[in-house]
Amino acid sequence: MALNKSDVEKIAHLARLEINEADIPHYANNLTNILSFVEQMSAIDTAGVEPMAHPLAASQRLRPDIVTETNQRELFQSIAPQVEAGLYLVPKVIE
Fold this sequence. Notes:
By secondary structure, the chain is mainly alpha-helical. 38% of the residues lie in helices and 4% in strands. The protein has a two-stranded antiparallel sheet with strand order 1-2.
């Protein structure tokens, strides 16, 4: 699959990238090579190949779900400009 100038411009637009007009042929060539490599990789028969390790298959180290921090609400709210019923009061900024 060969990419042309308009393909590269569209990709750049979608990626919100500004590219130099002179660099477009270079990008088109590189992207075409990448797509060709992906096509080659997709065509490989992997039916007899056992999958490599996957991070989701590994056991995860977990810690107990226990609160370790102390409650410092009163300390933090003591320095807040306005507090009411345990909530911070802030000025309205959107009408």
